[in-house]
Amino acid sequence: MATKKLAFIVRSMPYKTEASRLALTHAIASQTVEIYLEDGDMVEPVVAFMGDGVLNCLKNQNAMGMYGVTSIEQHLKNSLLLDLKVLICKEDVERFGLSESSLIMDAEDIGGETKATIVPFSEIQQEMETSNHLLFF
Question: 114-118 contacts: CB < 8 A, separation 24 or more?
Answer without folding.
Answer: 114/80, 114/81, 114/83, 114/84, 114/85, 114/86, 115/80, 116/57, 116/76, 116/80, 116/86, 116/87, 116/88, 117/85, 117/86, 117/87, 117/88, 118/87, 118/88, 118/89, 118/90, 118/93
